[in-house]
Amino acid sequence: MADTGAWLDRYAAYGMSISPMTPRAFHESAGLSLGATAIARRLHVPMRYGLVYPNLFVLWVARTTIFHKSTAMDAARDIARAAFPHLLAPQEDDARGVLG
């Protein structure tokens, strides 16, 4: 159990190597978001009043440009596209290319 969070540490280190100006907490939340997406409602906690499914909402708030939020988000999105594209919602194209 001592290595339970090792995957998150590895992901945060990977994120920091790609986008070092992004706060580590943002990389950690991106890793947790990837995990939550991969779980895809296949995990629940049985409670006396019913099943509880984990929910995770992530919001990054920081000054534009300085913290490289898009760079960090793109790294997580690339992993999601490669690992479980079937769990992602379709997105419209934007000026930079495909978002989703």
In words, what does this structure look like?
The protein has 100 residues and is mainly α. It has one domain. It is 44% helix and 10% strand. The strands form two sheets. The chain has a two-stranded antiparallel sheet. Strands 3-4 form a two-stranded antiparallel ribbon. Helix 1 (6-18) crosses helix 2 (24-39).
Rounded to the nearest angstrom, the radius of gyration is: 15 Å
Query: Can you list the strand order of the major beta sheet?
Result: 1-2
Note the main sheet: 2 strands, antiparallel
Q: What share of the residues lie within helices? A: 40-55%
- What's the mean pLDDT score? 88
Number of helical segments with 4 or more residues = 3
Choose one word for the global shape: globular
Poorly predicted ranges: none
Class inferred from helices and paired strands: mainly alpha
Order of helices and strands: HHEEHEE
Count of structural domains:
1
- Terminus-to-terminus distance: 35 Å
Number of strands: 4
Assembly state of the chains shown: single chain
Beta content comes to: 5-15%
